[in-house]
Design a protein that fits this description.
Elements lengths: L3 H9 L3 H24 L5 H22 L17 H25 L8 H23 L3 H32 L7
Length: 181
């Protein structure tokens, strides 16, 4: 989480290579943190909550900032910034999942949420998309060819994983134990 303000600053000042380095560094340190926590049995309930929140904060912040026209050099390269509809879909999916998890917890007491394969794929595609957009801002080569595909992929996977989550929530809510008499 500490790298998010530095990352945003690099984007705002159009230091895209540095922004990408920080984005990658944040990912590596996040991965190492999880690896060491598991390896040395240092996992904590707070860490299990804060780690995914930090990951989502970095991704959501990336999408929001990279959706702002003022972040890019003038003239703005073709198909930049990230379309607002892509950013709204990414954020809406995450908010929806958070609200769904809270509802399941309140109704059933269930807390052991494991990300689905579709959700993980969606997250990986979002990470690759952020890196691709940052590189596109720096080089602006061929953005008209690949960025529309990247945006469509991010949108489609966010939508599909969100719909998949609706079915998961429905199933969990229907599995709740009958009330005691």
């Amino acid at each position: 989480m500490a790298l998010i303000p530095v990352f945003v600053s690099m984007l705002v000042y159009q230091r895209f290579v540095w922004a990408l380095v920080i984005f990658i560094l944040a990912g590596i340190t996040d991965g190492l943190d999880g690896l060491f926590a598991r390896r040395f049995h240092q996992q904590s309930p707070l860490g299990r909550i804060l780690d995914p929140i930090a990951d989502k904060l970095m991704l959501v912040t990336s999408f929001v900032v990279l959706s702002m026209r003022g972040v890019y050099p003038t003239p703005v390269p073709k198909h930049l910034p990230i379309p607002f509809w892509v950013t709204i879909t990414v954020i809406s999916r995450d908010v929806f999942i958070l609200v769904g998890a809270a509802a399941i917890n309140i109704v059933t007491g269930f807390r052991s949420f494991v990300p689905s394969l579709l959700g993980k794929i969606s997250t990986v595609v979002q990470i690759v998309a952020v890196a691709t957009v940052i590189l596109s801002a720096e080089t602006a080569v061929g953005t008209g060819y690949y960025l529309p595909t990247v945006y469509t992929l991010v949108f489609g996977l966010a939508l599909l994983s969100g719909i998949h989550y609706v079915f998961f929530v429905s199933k969990r809510l229907n599995e709740r134990p009958p009330p005691k008499s």
